[in-house]
C-alpha cells in the first residue's frame, strides 16, 4: 500500500509544477461553468459520437454498453466539470484524479490519446452551444483542457513506469492462461488466470482490479473490461469472478464479454490482461474493525479483502454482510460460512430479498428484504470501523446514505464503482 500512498504525494508534486491558467481565461471558465453543468451530458454524448466517427480505432478501448446506457457520457461530464471547477487548486480533488488515472493506466490510455479527446471535446462544445461558444470561450477551454490533460499525462507516465518496474510487473497487455473455471453460483463463474510465460506476477492490494482484452470472433473491435480480483494476493494466479449479464428488458443486450467468458472460453484459453490497478483497496494499516458490505457480484473485492485479512493474520474483527436475491445466485456462500466457523474474528450476515422456501428454513439468512441503517445499527457493535462496499448503484446509494446518516466519517467510507464513475453523494439530504 505504500506505493499508493507515495502516489498520492506524487499527484500533489505534479500539481505544483503544472502551469496556471491566465486570469482572464480563468474568469471565462468560471462564468461558463453553469452552462457546462446544464449542457454537460448533451456535450459529452455528442463528443463520443464525434470522436468515434473521426477515430473508430478508439472503439477498441471504450465500453460501448456504457455509451448506450448513458453512464459514460454522464461520468465524463461530471469529471470535466469537477476538474474545471477546481482548476485553481486541483489538489482538492486528488481522490477523483487518482481514480481516473488508475483506470486510464489499466486501459492503456496514452499521451497520444489526449489531443484527440481535446479536439473532439472542443468541437462538441462548439457544435452544441452554437453562438454561445465564442472564440474567446473556446480558447479559454482549450487552455483549461491543456492544463488538465498535462496533469494526467505526467502522473500516468509515472504510474506506467512504476507498474512495469515492480517485481512481476509488466507494461501493456500480458497473456494469461485460464487455468480453470469454477461455477460459484447460477450466474457467477470464477476464472483462475496464470501467466503464459510462467514468470512472476505483480502483487496487488485487496480490492484492486485487472483489465482483460476480449478478442471475440465476429466482432470488429476488441473489448476491454475491468474485473475485481476476487482472491487474496501472494499466489501464482489471479482470480476474477464474473457475473453473466443476460439480456435486460430495457433494450440492453446481454453482456458481450461476460457471455464470451462464460460460454466460449475454457481452461487452456488465453486472456491478455493489464497489471492490477485501482484506488479501492483495503487499508491494512488501520487498527479498526472492518465492515465489508456487498450486493450481488459486488462481493468480488470484499471476498479478496476477507481472504487477505485472515491470511495475513491481522487481528481485526471483520463483519461480512452480503445482499443477494437468494442462494441460487449467491457466490462464495459456503466459503464465507466456513471462514466464519473457523475464525472467531469473523461474523457474516446474508440478506435475501427473494429467498426460496429452502433458504428460509436453512437458517443462514440474517434478514429477509434489504439492508437498512436500523438493521446495521443492531448487528454492528460500533460505527468506529472502516466500511467498504460495492454492488449495484442503487445498493451503494442506500449504503452510502445510511453511513452518512450514522455520521460515519468520510475517510472511513470506501466504495468501488463497477464501470463508469458516479457520485453517491448526489441528492443526499
From TrEMBL:
The keyword Oxidoreductase applies. Signal peptide: none annotated. Its EC number is 1.14.12.17. InterPro entries: Cbr1-like_FAD-bd_dom, FAD-bd_FR_type, FNR_nucleotide-bd, Globin, Globin-like_sf, Globin/Proto, Hmp, OxRdtase_FAD/NAD-bd. The record marks 103, 416 as: Influences the redox potential of the prosthetic heme and FAD groups. The active site is at 114 (charge relay system), 156 (charge relay system). FAD binds at residues 209, 225-228, 417-420. Heme b binds at residue 104. It comes from the Bacteria. NADP(+) binds at residues 296-301. GO terms for biological process: cellular response to nitrosative stress; nitric oxide catabolic process; response to toxic substance. Gene3D superfamilies: Globins, Nucleotide-binding domain of ferredoxin-NADP reductase (FNR) module, Translation factors. GO terms for molecular function: FAD binding; heme binding; metal ion binding; nitric oxide dioxygenase NAD(P)H activity; oxygen binding; oxygen carrier activity. The record marks 48 as: Involved in heme-bound ligand stabilization and O-O bond activation. Its cofactor is heme b; FAD. It catalyses: 2 nitric oxide + NADH + 2 O2 = 2 nitrate + NAD(+) + H(+); 2 nitric oxide + NADPH + 2 O2 = 2 nitrate + NADP(+) + H(+). Residues 168-429 are annotated as: Reductase. Consists of two distinct domains; an N-terminal heme-containing oxygen-binding domain and a C-terminal reductase domain with binding sites for FAD and NAD(P)H. Belongs to the globin family. Two-domain flavohemoproteins subfamily. In the C-terminal section; belongs to the flavoprotein pyridine nucleotide cytochrome reductase family. Is involved in NO detoxification in an aerobic process, termed nitric oxide dioxygenase (NOD) reaction that utilizes O(2) and NAD(P)H to convert NO to nitrate, which protects the bacterium from various noxious nitrogen compounds. Therefore, plays a central role in the inducible response to nitrosative stress. This is Flavohemoprotein. The gene is hmpA.
Amino acid at each position: 500500500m505504500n506505493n499508493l500512498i507515495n502516489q498520492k504525494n506524487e499527484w500533489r508534486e505534479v500539481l505544483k509544477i503544472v502551469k496556471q491558467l491566465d486570469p482572464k481565461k480563468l474568469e471565462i471558465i468560471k462564468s461558463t461553468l453553469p452552462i457546462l453543468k446544464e449542457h454537460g451530458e448533451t456535450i459529452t454524448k455528442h463528443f463520443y459520437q464525434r470522436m468515434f466517427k473521426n477515430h473508430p480505432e478508439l472503439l477498441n478501448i471504450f465500453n460501448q454498453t456504457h455509451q448506450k446506457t448513458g453512464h459514460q457520457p454522464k461520468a465524463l461530464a461530471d469529471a470535466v466539470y469537477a476538474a474545471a471547477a477546481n482548476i485553481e487548486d486541483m489538489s482538492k480533488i486528488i481522490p477523483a484524479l487518482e481514480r481516473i488515472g488508475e483506470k486510464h493506466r489499466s486501459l492503456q490510455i496514452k499521451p497520444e490519446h489526449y489531443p484527440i479527446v481535446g479536439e473532439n471535446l472542443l468541437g462538441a462544445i462548439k457544435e452544441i452551444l452554437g453562438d454561445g461558444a465564442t472564440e474567446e470561450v473556446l480558447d479559454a477551454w482549450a487552455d483549461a483542457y491543456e492544463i488538465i490533460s498535462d496533469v494526467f499525462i505526467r502522473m500516468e507516465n509515472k504510474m506506467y513506469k512504476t507498474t512495469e518496474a515492480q517485481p512481476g510487473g509488466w507494461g501493456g497487455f500480458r497473456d494469461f492462461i485460464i487455468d480453470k473455471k469454477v461455477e460459484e453460483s447460477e450466474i457467477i463463474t470464477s476464472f483462475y488466470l496464470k501467466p503464459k510465460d510462467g514468470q512472476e506476477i505483480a502483487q496487488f492490494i485487496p480490492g484492486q482490479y485487472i483489465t482483460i482484452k476480449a478478442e471475440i470472433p465476429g466482432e470488429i473491435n476488441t473489448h476491454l473490461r475491468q474485473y475485481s480480483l476476487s482472491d487474496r494476493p501472494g499466489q501464482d494466479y489471479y482470480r476474477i469472478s464474473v457475473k453473466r449479464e443476460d439480456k435486460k428488458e430495457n433494450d440492453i443486450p446481454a453482456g458481450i464479454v461476460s457471455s464470451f467468458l462464460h460460454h466460449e472460453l475454457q481452461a487452456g484459453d488465453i486472456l491478455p490482461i493489464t497489471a492490477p490497478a485501482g484506488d479501492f483497496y483495503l487499508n491494512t494499516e488501520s487498527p479498526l474493525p472492518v465492515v465489508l458490505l456487498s450486493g450481488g457480484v459486488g462481493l468480488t473485492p470484499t471476498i479478496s479483502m476477507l481472504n487477505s485479512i485472515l491470511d495475513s493474520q491481522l487481528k481485526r474483527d471483520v463483519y461480512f454482510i452480503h445482499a443477494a436475491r437468494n442462494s441460487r445466485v449467491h457466490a462464495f456462500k459456503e466459503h464465507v460460512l466456513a471462514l466464519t466457523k473457523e475464525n472467531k474474528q469473523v461474523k457474516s450476515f446474508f440478506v435475501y430479498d427473494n429467498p426460496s422456501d429452502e433458504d428460509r428454513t436453512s437458517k443462514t439468512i440474517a434478514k429477509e428484504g434489504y439492508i437498512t441503517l436500523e438493521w446495521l445499527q443492531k448487528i454492528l457493535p460500533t460505527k468506529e470501523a472502516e466500511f467498504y462496499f460495492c454492488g449495484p448503484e442503487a445498493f451503494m446509494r442506500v449504503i452510502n446514505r445510511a453511513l452518512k446518516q450514522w455520521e460515519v466519517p468520510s475517510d472511513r467510507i470506501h466504495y468501488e464503482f463497477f464501470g463508469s464513475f458516479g457520485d453517491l453523494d448526489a441528492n443526499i439530504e
